[in-house]
Amino acid sequence: MAYKAFSRGIFYEFQAPVWSGLSQIRDLQTYWAGIIQSNKQLFEEGKDLARLNAAYRIFQQRNEALQNEIHRLEKVLKIPPLPQHRIVVARVARRELNAWWQELTIRVGTDKGIIAGSAVIYGDGVVGRIKEVHETSSVVELVSSRSFRMAATFEGDTRPVTYQGQFNYTLGTSFGHVRDVPSDLRASEGVPLRLVSSRLGGVFPEGLLIGLVSGLEPDTNGLFTEGNVRLSERLLDIREVAVLIPIEVTVSTSDQSEEPIYDF
């Protein structure tokens, strides 16, 4: 067993520079594709970016105001602060998507302070969890993988439920499964329920989107209900992720900043 683990580690350390190189070549192709665009296209994209930047500045101000209010209430109510994270933004170097497991290899590892078990997120919510860490690369177990499991809640409801990935194939929308759902909750195609992360899950902040539930059926014991969770279509084509590393477990005190770290 130890020999297999050692061999697997050596394999990843050997292959990681190749995957990283191919990923950087794709980034370079995207860069040159942008260079040869017409001035009109660049002008239109510049206007879109300006609008997005303006919107992000507004969101940042609102976020800072909410954070200040949270800190004030923590002091007044004398409650422990929410967990803080250091953010490492990474590019995806490789995908391994099949019915048995669904994984991503990203271009950061121990060189950026990545630790196993860290939460991985993106714009649409939960991506997965760090499964293995190597010197310059890490393996992410996707939320769609059948071996992925976490505690969750439905938006607007504090009662915990259990989420688990399912068998998923390379093409098409990915699905998971939710169980232990209180029987008074209702979901339909027209009014789906939003399944979000819970702090009971350990490493994930509260309220990150996991997927949508469009139907619930009684489970085998009849006490709870269960149903499929439709995950975001972007999950299969994701190119960038953010790894959330709890600040209290980082080794170096110089890395305690909450400013994001980028691998590109």
Shape: globular
- The CATH topology of the largest domain corresponds to Thrombin, subunit H
Provide the spatial order of strands within the biggest beta sheet: 10-9-6-7-8-12-11
Q: H/E order of the elements?
A: HHEEEEEEEEEEEEEE
How many beta-strand elements? 14
Return the CATH class of the largest domain: Mainly Beta
Structure report:
The longest helix is centred in the first third of the chain and has 39 residues, at 39-77. The protein has two helices and 14 strands; from the N terminus they run ααββββββββββββββ. It has two domains: 2-77; 84-264, Thrombin, subunit H (Beta Barrel), CATH 2.40.10. Mean pLDDT is 81; it is low at 249-255. With 264 residues, the chain is α+β, with helices and mostly antiparallel strands. The protein is globular. Strands 10-9-6-7-8-12-11 form a seven-stranded antiparallel sheet, with no helix packed on it.
Layout of secondary structure:
Layout: H1 2-35, H2 39-77, E1 85-97, E2 102-106, E3 119-122, E4 125-133, E5 138-142, E6 149-154, E7 161-165, E8 175-182, E9 193-197, E10 209-213, E11 217-218, E12 224-230, E13 240-246, E14 261-262
Parallel strand pairs: 1-14
Antiparallel strand pairs: 1-2, 1-13, 2-5, 3-4, 3-13, 4-5, 6-7, 6-9, 7-8, 8-12, 9-10, 11-12
Identify the notable features of this structure and list them briefly.
28% helix, seven-stranded antiparallel sheet, Thrombin, subunit H, alpha+beta, single chain, 264 residues, six-stranded antiparallel β-barrel, globular, 2 domains, 2 helices
